[in-house]
Every structure is written in structure tokens, then in C-alpha cells.
Specification:
Catalytic activity: a phosphate monoester + H2O = an alcohol + phosphate
Oligomer: single chain
CATH superfamily: Metallo-dependent phosphatases
Radius of gyration: 18 Å
Number of domains: 1
Order of helices and strands: HEEHEHEHHEEEHHEHHEEEEEEE
Low-confidence stretches: 1-21
Shape: globular
Number of helices: 9
GO molecular function: acid phosphatase activity; metal ion binding
Organism: Eragrostis curvula
Helix content: 10-25%
Cofactor: Fe cation
Strand order of the largest sheet: 1-6-7-8-9-11-10-12
Largest sheet: 8 strands, mixed
EC number: 3.1.3.2
Structural class: alpha/beta
CATH topology: Purple Acid Phosphatase, chain A, domain 2
């Protein structure tokens, strides 16, 4: 179990700038065996309800078996309307008190979802929460350099125009984000720059919203038009997201990019299915999570249901550059 002191030392080293890239760059040290292993989950924060606690239990079991390095957390961390502030008990009741397994006491690299923006979005970025639970590492857009793989976390909520133009009864915390066009332009520029500088064997992008999805929310057109060309031009291998409360693997028909949805951390079973133009490899309209293991030459992923059963696995090998 990584104690508070260990996490603090890790973060001090990690926050040191590694290059001239605008995105914050965190260094995650590799294991001696050269393997990088993690779980990915999203759309979970419901104080243990809607089977969140059962999914968390299975994450702990699989996390121990795989000796995970960290958790990729793809947003919608606290329902329905984010946190009210840094003293909101929902942080402990939906996170600290739920993900208690020893194997999950690793860094949780976290981005915001649209529900998080409906509350005090800045609270989730505050170092106060990290003092409450040292696993919590949350920023809007950032990079995790993890030896064999670089992870490019992208703040996708501001891309979606309907949140700005038709918020209905919701209020979004756009502090630090408005004006919209200027913010998006900078995010895209910074992501492109960071991707071009990456020399990792695997490039993995992470966002809350799906680029491709066959479930209720479906494809995010703003990301298809603005973010996807940058990912494809820079040879990104995987895009991991949440938002749709399901598990999915979709293969791009015009690039090597694989779309992976792991947004099934609690409430699911929406009963929606709308195919898109890319190839659907796997779809599960229910609760669960994903594991990912990487070496320099190979990636292996699995999706698990609420009982910890493996629903689907996929592997891919590519030549190791010399």
C-alpha cells in the first residue's frame, strides 16, 4: 500500500517539467519486469449504489491478480452534479470509502466528466482532496509518461457545444474554460505538441466523451471533427473514454486507432444501440470495468462484468523499433 509520504514524493518528482510542452507531465516509474498494467473505469460516483460497490470489489480482486500500476479514471466522478466544494462528503462516500482494496491504493489519474462540471469543478482539481486521499490526481488535461506508454488526458466536456448553447436546467462551472473557442484551440495545440514530442512505444489518449460509441450518447461529433484528426496524424494507438455507461471496443476502419469505452462503474443497462461506420468488436450494455497490460511490443485488454467475469479480451502486437 502506497502511503501518503510515498505519494507526496512521487508527485514532487512528477510535477517537475520534463519538456517545453504546455500540458503538465507526470512521470510514472516503470516496474522492473517492463510491464505496465492498469484498470480503467468511469461514471461511478454514486455512494456505492447501482452496484458501484460490487464493481469496486471486483476491481480490487483483478487489481491484485495483475499487480496494477495505477487506475485510469475517465470522469463523471460524482453524480448528479459533481462536488459542492472541497468539504463535500461525497468525495469520501463515493471514492475513499468504496475503493478500499489494497490493490487500488495506487494513483488514480483522473479527468472531469460533464456531471463533474455541473458542480464545483475546481474543487476536484484542488490539492485539498489529495491531502484527504493521496491517490487522487485530477487535472483538466495532462500527460502521464509511463515508460512504454504515454497517456494523454484530454478535457473533453468543453468541446461539446450543447453544454454551452442548450444547458437545459443544468449550470456548468466554466471557470478557467471560457471563452470556449480560445480554450479548445489551446487544448488541441497542446495535445498535438505533446503527442509530437512523445517517443513512447504506445500512445494512449484518454477523454470522458466517446469519439465512437454505439450506446445512448453515441459519437461525439465535436471530437470527430477537432480531436480525432490530431490523434490519427500522431499515431495514437488507443482512445479510452467513459460517458456511455457500457463497455465497448470499436476499431477504426481508416486508421490503427482503437476506441475503448469503460463507463460502466455504476448505473448502466440503458438499452440503446445505434451502429456507426466503424467496426464494432465488442459491446456490453452493463456494469463493469477494463484492464490493460502493455509491454513494448504488445497490448492486452480485457473487459469484466460486475461479477469479475471476463467478457472479452483483445491483444495486438506491433514491431519494436530499434
Amino acid at each position: 500500500m502506497m502511503g501518503p509520504v510515498a505519494i507526496v514524493v512521487f508527485l514532487v518528482a512528477a510535477m517537475a517539467p520534463r519538456s517545453s510542452a504546455e500540458l503538465p507531465q507526470l512521470e510514472h516509474p516503470p516496474k522492473e519486469d517492463g510491464l505496465l498494467t492498469m484498470l480503467a473505469v468511469g461514471d461511478w460516483g454514486r455512494r456505492g449504489q447501482f452496484n458501484q460497490s460490487l464493481v469496486a470489489k471486483q476491481m480490487g480482486i483483478i487489481g491484485e491478480k495483475m499487480d496494477i500500476d495505477f487506475v485510469v479514471n475517465v470522469g463523471d466522478n460524482f453524480y448528479d452534479n459533481g462536488l459542492t466544494g472541497v468539504d463535500d462528503k461525497a468525495f469520501e462516500e463515493s471514492f475513499t470509502d468504496i475503493y478500499t482494496a489494497e490493490s487500488l491504493q495506487k494513483p488514480w489519474y483522473t479527468i472531469l466528466g460533464n456531471h463533474d462540471y455541473r458542480g464545483d469543478a475546481l474543487a476536484q482539481l484542488s490539492p485539498v482532496l489529495r491531502k484527504l486521499d493521496s491517490r487522487w490526481i485530477c487535472m483538466k488535461s495532462f500527460v502521464v509518461n509511463a515508460d512504454v506508454a504515454d497517456f494523454f488526458f484530454v478535457d473533453t466536456t468543453p468541446f461539446v457545444l450543447s453544454y454551452w448553447n442548450n444547458p437545459k436546467n443544468n449550470t456548468y462551472d466554466w471557470r478557467g474554460v471560457a471563452p470556449h473557442e480560445k480554450y479548445i484551440t489551446k487544448v488541441l495545440k497542446d495535445v498535438d505538441k505533446a503527442l509530437k514530442q512523445s517517443t513512447a512505444a504506445w500512445k494512449i489518449a484518454v477523454g470522458h466523451h466517446a469519439i465512437r460509441s454505439v450506446s445512448e450518447h453515441g459519437d461525439t461529433q465535436e471530437l470527430i471533427q477537432q480531436l480525432l484528426p490530431i490523434l490519427q496524424a500522431n499515431g495514437v494507438d488507443l482512445y479510452i473514454n467513459g460517458h456511455d455507461h457500457c463497455l465497448e471496443h470499436i476499431s477504426s476502419r481508416d486508421s490503427p486507432l482503437q476506441y475503448l469505452t469503460s463507463g460502466a462503474g455504476s448505473k448502466a443497462w440503458r438499452g440503446s444501440f445505434t451502429p456507426n461506420s466503424d467496426k464494432l468488436e465488442f459491446f456490453y450494455d452493463g456494469q463493469g470495468f477494463m484492464s490493460l497490460q502493455l509491454s513494448k511490443a504488445e497490448v492486452h485488454l480485457s473487459f469484466y462484468d460486475v461479477g469479475g467475469n471476463v467478457l472479452y479480451s483483445w491483444s495486438h502486437t506491433k514491431p519494436v523499433p530499434y
